[in-house]
C-alpha cells in the first residue's frame, strides 16, 4: 500500500472509486453528485487549485481525498477545504481513511497551508484533528444545510483563530447542493 499525489493518469479510476463508494453508502443521487463534482475538479482545476491524495494497493486506487483552496477576503492565511473523501467499500473500517488524511495534512502543513476546513461527520473527522467551527470562526462560502458539520483545524501550532471576512471556494464546489 502506498500514498501518492500523482493522479493525472488515474482520473478515470478515481472518479469510478468515488462513484462506486458513494453508490454503496449514500445511494444513486449522492453518487451522481459526487461523480460530477470529482470529474469537474479533476478536469477543470489546475495544480495550484487541486491537492489530490491517493492510496494505491496492487495498482488499484483504494482511497482518495481532494483538497482545494478557500480564499478569505480579509485574511492572509492559506486555507484549504477537504472534500470529498472516499475509501473503497471493501477497504473501509481498517484505518485507511484516517491514515490518508493524516498523511495529507502533514504534506499540506509542509507546503505552508495554515488552516484546513471540512464539512461532514464529526464522529469521523474528530479522529484526524478536526473540531466544530462556527460560521463566525470561518464564514462558509454558501449557506450550510448542516451547520454542525462545519469543521476545521489549524495546521500550525496554536488555537483556531477566526478567519477574517467572507470566503470563496473553487468553482466546482460553488453549488448549494454541496453545502
Ligand atoms: C467515511 C470514510 C472515508 C471513512 O474511512 P475508513 O477508512 O472507513 O475509516 P477508518 O477506518 O479510518 O476510521 C474508522 C472510524 O471512523 C468512523 N467512521 C467511519 N465511517 C464513518 C462515517 N461514514 N460516519 C461517521 N463515522 C465513520 C468509525 O466509527 C470508525 O471509528 P472506530 O474506529 O472508533 O469504530 C469511508 O468509510 C467512506 O468512504 N465512506 C463512504 C463515503 C463517505 O461517507 N465519505 C465521507 C463524506 S463526508
TrEMBL record:
The keyword Transferase is assigned to this record: yes
Signal peptide span: none
Domain N-acetyltransferase: 1-156
GO molecular function: acyltransferase activity, transferring groups other than amino-acyl groups
The organism's place on the tree of life at top rank: Bacteria
InterPro entries: Acyl_CoA_acyltransferase (IPR016181), GNAT_dom (IPR000182)
Keywords: Transferase
Gene3D superfamilies: 3.40.630.30
UniProt key word Transferase: yes
This protein's name: Acetyltransferase
Amino acid at each position: 500500500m502506498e500514498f501518492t499525489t500523482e493522479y493525472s493518469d488515474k482520473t478515470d479510476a478515481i472518479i469510478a472509486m468515488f462513484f462506486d463508494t458513494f453508490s454503496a453508502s449514500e445511494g444513486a443521487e449522492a453518487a451522481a453528485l459526487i461523480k460530477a463534482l470529482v470529474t469537474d475538479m479533476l478536469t477543470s482545476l489546475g495544480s495550484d487549485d487541486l491537492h489530490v491524495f491517493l492510496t494505491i494497493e496492487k495498482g488499484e486506487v483504494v482511497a482518495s481525498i481532494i483538497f482545494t483552496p478557500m480564499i478569505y477576503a480579509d485574511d492572509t492565511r492559506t486555507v484549504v477545504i477537504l472534500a470529498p473523501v472516499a475509501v473503497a467499500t471493501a477497504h473501509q473500517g481498517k484505518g485507511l481513511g484516517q491514515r490518508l488524511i493524516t498523511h495529507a495534512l502533514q504534506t499540506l502543513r509542509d507546503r505552508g497551508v495554515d488552516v484546513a476546513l471540512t464539512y461532514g461527520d464529526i464522529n469521523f473527522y474528530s479522529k484526524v484533528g478536526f473540531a466544530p467551527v462556527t460560521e463566525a470562526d470561518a464564514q462558509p462560502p454558501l449557506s450550510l444545510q448542516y451547520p454542525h458539520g462545519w469543521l476545521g483545524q489549524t495546521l500550525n501550532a496554536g488555537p483556531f483563530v477566526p478567519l477574517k471576512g467572507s470566503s470563496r471556494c473553487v468553482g466546482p464546489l460553488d453549488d448549494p447542493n454541496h453545502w
